[in-house]
Structures are given as C-alpha cells and as structure tokens.
Design brief:
Blueprint: E1 9-14, H1 20-29, E2 33-38, H2 43-49, E3 53-56, H3 74-77, E4 82-85, H4 87-95, E5 99-115, E6 128-129, E7 135-149, E8 155-159, E9 167-170, E10 175-178, H5 190-201, H6 210-225, E11 229-233, H7 238-251, E12 255-261, H8 269-281, E13 285-289, H9 291-298, H10 304-325, E14 329-333, H11 338-348, H12 364-368, E15 371-373, H13 381-390, H14 395-398, H15 418-437, E16 446-460, E17 463-476, E18 484-485, H16 490-503, E19 507-512
Parallel strand pairs: 1-2, 1-3, 3-4, 4-10, 11-12, 11-14, 12-13, 14-15, 17-19
Antiparallel strand pairs: 5-7, 5-8, 6-7, 8-9, 9-10, 16-17, 17-18
Helix pairs in contact: 6-7, 6-13, 7-13, 9-10, 15-16
The structure holds adenosine-5'-triphosphate, xanthosine-5'-monophosphate (XMP), glutamine (GLN) and magnesium ion (MG).
Magnesium ion (MG) binds next to loops.
C-alpha cells in the first residue's frame, strides 16, 4: 500500500477570482497537493478535509456590500496557517476586527511593493533593494478596496503607493494577507512566496511529484480494478494517451483501448496512435475504421451544434458496439482532468451562457453499464504532461496542441465531405510541419487550418482555377478562455500559403485569421 500522497494538502476557498486555478497550479508546482472548493463549503467538510493550510482567493465583490461572501469561522479555528489574497485579505481583515475602505487610488496592473522584511512570509524575498535597504517586490494588483486598519495581532508586511497596507501578517497565528496577486506571473517572486507559505509555514514537504503520483495511482488502480477488464477510448490526444500509459503500467493485459477513426482526424493520426501504443508500448489497441459511417451520417448537416451533437452520438454507438464484443469489461476509463471537474461544477450553477457544446464521450457509462475509472481527475494539464513524460510517452505526443473531440468536423465549415477533409488534412499537415521547421510550434498554444467551402478564382500555369479557401489559425493563450492571434513571421505564412496552394488538392487561396478571443472563438465552429 502506497502512503497517502494527499495527506499533506492545502485547501483553496474560492471567492470567485479569475485566478483561482492559477493559485492551485502554483501550489502543485511547489509539489504540494491542493483542492479548490467554494467559499461557502460547509464547516463539517472543511474539518473533514483537514488541510495543513488554507488559501482564500480574490473575488469580484466588495466586503461592504450586503451579503458579501464571508470566510467560514472554522477557517480561523483550525489552528492552521491562512493566506488571504486580495478579497481574501480584505475579508480576513474585516472579520478579524480591522477596517476596509474603498480606495481613492484603484490599482490595476503592475505596482512596486515595499516589503518590510520582517515577516516569515516575505523574509529575504525581493526583486530590488532601496538605497535605505528595504526590499522591493514587483507585483500585480487588481483592486478597488483596501485595508485601512489592522486587525489585532497583525503588522504591515508590504506597502504600495495605492495601498499603504498591501500585506498583513500575524506570525503567531500564521495568518497572512496580500493585496497583490502572488499567483500571476507578473508578480515575479510569486512562486517563491507561495512556496514559502505551503512549505515553511504550513509544513508541507513536497511529496506531490510525478514519480510519486504514478506510484500512488498505480497502487490505487490495482486495488480498485482487481482482476476486471478495462476499456479506454484512445484519441491520440494528451489525456487519453496518458491514461493508456498509466493503465498499461498498472494492469497490463487487462486494458483494451479502442481507437476510432471517424474520418475527421489529422494526417496519419491513426498510424501514429498504432505505432506509439500498439507497437512501441505493447498496449492492446483495437483500430475501428468508422470513417464511412461518420461521413454518411454527417452528409447534408451544416449547423455546427447539430454536427457536434451528432458526432458525439455516433461515437457512443461505436463504443457501445465495441464494448459488446469484448468479454468481462466492467470499467470504462476516461481522461477527465481537474479543470473539467472544476468547470463542470461551475457549469452546474447555470450562470454561463452556452457558446458551443464541447463534445465529450462523457455520456457513455450510463448506457453501457460500465463503472468509470478516471485516474487523472485531480490533475492539471501540466501535471498530466509531466506524468506522460515520466511514463515514457514521446515528447511530441505529450506537448501536442489540443485537438477538439469533433476533430475536423468543426474545422470544415458547414457540410462535411470526404474531399474537403482530405484537402484540409493535407493543408493542416503543411502548416504544422512549417511551424516546426521555424521552431514556432511550441511557442504558439494552438495552430491549425480551417476549410472554407467558398470558391475563389485563381490563376496557375496560365490557367484559371476556381477552388476553395484555407484559413490558417494560430493563437497564444494560457487557459484557452481568452486568446490572442499569433504574430507569425510573414516568411513563414508565405511559405505555408505557397505550399498549400501547390500541394493540397482543390485549394486556390490561403488567408490568415487575425481575430482574438473574445470576440471570436479559437475554433471556427
Ligand atoms: N477518435 C477517438 N477514438 C477513441 N476515443 C476517443 C476518440 N476521440 C475521443 N475519444 C475519447 O473521448 C474522450 C474525450 O475526447 P476529447 O477529445 O473531447 O477530450 P480531450 O480532453 O481532448 O482528451 P484527449 O486529450 O484524450 O483527446 C477522450 O479522452 C477519449 O477517451
Ligand atoms: O475536447 C474538445 N471538444 C470540443 O468539442 C471542442 N471544441 C473546441 N475545443 C477546444 O477548446 C479550446 C477553446 O475553443 P473555442 O475557443 O473554439 O471554444 C480550443 O483548444 C479548442 O480546440 C474543444 N475541445
Ligand atoms: N481582485 C480582488 O480580489 C478584488 C477585491 C475587491 N473586489 C476589490 O476591488 O478590492
Ligand atoms: Mg482530444
């Protein structure tokens, strides 16, 4: 039995900050396990979670408004360290007897904080030193309120122009507050501050490492699954690939993967999946050629939402059939990761409007009567990648750009046809190949080609051409919620355009997408 890897854990209580997930990733980067829960998580749950420390996030509210979210009293009664960030600091100050007021200087963006190097939290952490010997920190601020009076037992540990009380600390009780955001990269010492809090102050020793996570998951999977058979949908994407590698290590022959070629995959994707998993790693992979079935059912369907839903449904049918052909399968493994869990909890509150239905094969288990196995459920993407590398997956696979579940189905605008998919596959492969050639693939977050079923006139070899258009899309983003279009070099765009028109059948024009998200989205449908 592996030791309990999650026994040293930090609780993050979320007051609605844009940066909540970043806080969690920073803590995980310090090799400490943490979970995010809503700020009104019931007292009994908080007690049962038994955190070694608590972080209170920022949030859009002001502590003065009626019904402003409160910190549960238990947070201050557990005897563990507490770090309040922005709203979290303001709420902490107010609840412990200090004052908070609307600030005359609202600070949004970069600021310099004078750190008075006498707290455990900030001692010897600085970017610059003033001539008088004070430490200076480059920090990121985003607030309209500020703490105006200290609660009892606290001292000021940092100040900025707009917030003379930009940090507070009570070393005795180990309660700290920061008006600035240590979790964003603009706060250059942010990672060190977070490491200081979870490490030295909370006493977590950094057990949450890739090799420990693997060892722990392998033991847990073996205990859970016993001698049962497990089925996994393998897409060639990062998540299901890492699940395949992990399950293969844990249960070997008890794993069967199904790879469905729906005719909407990238060039050579099927061959790559088979080469990596079946030949190289010895995983049992069933390759299902379902191209005709998908394309037949998609014929004549032009509405993006209908296409997405239909593709999801056909996937389920194909899976269902495959599961029926296998003996003794009791489990369905999925590549669910922590952001999926957090986001679907958020989606349940129903406040967000639907922009597009992200297809997932998530509806499977109910119909198939299989139990769900989700070994990556508590991991962020970067952790999943580390584990993938540690398990020996090729770097190109682990650092692949995301590829949507409906695949080329949402990159061919309107009706999907085989000849469009073939042209698009070729164009996309050329774009990616040239990006790699220019060493830009890893510098952009996602890049792909889109097929526009619009004919335009061209001239080649003194002849007239009347053919389709390819749009290129490349974006930079950290969370895929917002994105900027990449300023790719003209020479690269020129080379890609020339090659696509020459090499991809039926294309006479190439354009580059210069829309950000918002107002556009990353995919075109
Ligand atoms: N072509 C496919 N063949 C088999 N299973 C698939 C295929 N496409 C998707 N799946 C299954 O459906 C799940 C959801 O797919 P989707 O692409 O939406 O998710 P994802 O988070 O991108 O995961 P991944 O990185 O594994 O592709 C995948 O994890 C995989 O288990
Ligand atoms: O698994 C997925 N199933 C989907 O149906 C889907 N639609 C979009 N995407 C990916 O999500 C990110 C944001 O895309 P959008 O800006 O187009 O919404 C981008 O990375 C998109 O590629 C999907 N991923
Ligand atoms: N980012 C925050 O947590 C902001 C807190 C509060 N709404 C303020 O404006 O000061
Ligand atoms: Mg995928």
């Amino acid at each position: 039995m592996a030791f309990d890897l999650q026994s040293q854990r930090i609780l993050i209580l979320d007051f609605g900050s844009q940066y909540t997930q970043l806080i969690a990733r920073r803590i995980r980067q310090a090799n400490v396990y943490c979970e995010i829960h809503p700020c009104d998580w019931p007292t009994a749950e908080i007690e049962a979670f038994a955190p070694m420390g608590i972080v209170l996030t920022g949030g859009p509210e002001s502590v003065h408004v009626d019904n402003a979210p409160r910190i549960p009293d238990i947070v201050f009664q557990l005897g563990v360290p507490v770090l309040g960030i922005c709203y979290g600091m303001q709420a902490m100050a107010r609840q412990l007897g200090g004052q908070v007021e609307p600030s005359a200087y609202k600070e949004f963006g970069y600021a310099q904080a004078r750190a008075r190097g006498h707290s455990r939290l900030l001692r010897n952490i600085e970017d610059h030193t003033t001539p008088e010997g004070y430490g200076l920190l480059d920090v990121w601020m985003s607030h309209g309120d500020r703490v105006a009076g200290l609660p009892e037992g606290f001292k000021v540990i940092a100040s900025t122009l707009g917030a003379p009380i930009a940090g507070i600390g009570d070393d005795e009780r180990r309660f700290y507050g920061l008006q600035f955001h240590p979790e964003v990269t603009h706060t250059t010492q942010g990672q060190r501050i977070i490491e200081r809090f979870v490490g030295e102050i909370c006493g977590c020793s950094g057990q949450w490492t890739a090799s420990n996570i693997i060892e722990h998951s392998v033991t847990r999977i073996r205990e859970e699954v016993g001698t049962d058979q497990v089925l996994l949908g393998l897409s060639g994407g990062v998540d299901s690939s890492v699940v395949a590698a992990l399950l293969h290590q844990a249960i070997g022959e008890q794993l069967t993967c199904v790879f469905v070629d729906n005719g909407l995959l990238r060039l050579n994707e099927g061959a790559q999946v088979m080469a990596t998993f079946a030949r190289h790693m010895g995983v049992r992979v069933i390759h299902v050629n379902a191209e005709e079935r998908f394309l037949t059912r998609l014929a004549g369907v032009v509405d993006p939402e209908r296409k997405r839903k239909l593709i999801g449904r056909i996937f389920i049918d194909v899976f269902d059939e495959q599961a029926g052909k296998l003996d003794g399968v009791k489990w369905l493994a999925q590549g669910t990761i922590y952001p999926d869990v957090i986001e679907s909890a958020g989606a349940k509150t129903g406040k967000a409007r639907l922009i597009k239905s992200h297809h997932n094969v998530g509806g499977l288990p109910e119909r198939m009567n299989l139990r769900l196995l989700e070994p990556l459920r508590s991991l962020f993407k970067d952790e999943v990648r580390c584990i993938g590398l540690e398990l020996g997956l090729p770097t190109e696979l682990v650092y692949r750009h995301p590829f949507p579940g409906p695949g080329l189905g949402v990159r061919i605008l309107g009706e999907v046809r085989k000849e469009y998919a073939d042209a698009l596959r070729r164009a996309d492969a050329i774009f990616i190949e040239e990006l790699r050639h220019y060493e830009l693939y890893d510098r952009v977050s996602q890049a792909f080609a889109v097929f526009l079923p619009v004919k335009t006139v061209g001239v080649t070899g003194d002849g007239r051409r009347y053919e389709y258009v390819i749009a290129l899309r490349a974006v930079e983003t950290t969370d895929f919620m917002t994105a900027q279009w990449s300023h790719l070099p003209y020479e690269l765009l020129e080379e890609v355009s020339r090659r696509i028109i020459n090499e991809a059948e039926g294309i006479s024009r190439v354009v580059y997408d210069i829309s950000g998200k918002p107002p556009a989205t990353i995919e075109w449908e």
